[in-house]
């Protein structure tokens, strides 16, 4: 990424818990996990494929 933007993100508590667990199992920060998942979804949408 050439430029980064900061945002405030409100998540339901159960989604936050799930994302934090996914990040821990992938050895990523919560921020990195969210960025990773958004990029995967973006790439899938750009390719016209369904997400895994």
TrEMBL record:
Residues 6-39 form the Arc-like DNA binding domain. Pfam families: Arc. It comes from the Bacteria. InterPro entries: Arc_DNA-bd_dom, Arc_rbn_hlx_hlx, Ribbon_hlx_hlx. Keywords: DNA-binding. GO terms for molecular function: DNA binding. One of its GO terms (biological process) is regulation of DNA-templated transcription. This is Arc family DNA-binding protein. It comes from Streptomyces coelicoflavus. The lineage of its organism: Bacteria, Bacillati, Actinomycetota, Actinomycetes, Kitasatosporales.
